[in-house]
Amino acid sequence: MLDVARFAPSGGNRQGWRVVVVKDQIIREKIRDLYVVSWREYMAHVEAGLVPFAPVTDRNWRGPAVDISTARSIEHPFAFADDLDRAPVLLAVFVELDMLAVLDNGLGRQSIVGGASIYPFCYSILLAAVEMGLGGVMTTALCREEPAVMSLLGVDPAFALAALVVIGEPAKKISKLTRKSVADFSRVDGFDGERFGESLST
Question: Which of 49, 47, 41 is nearest to 71 (CA)?
Answer without folding.
Answer: 41
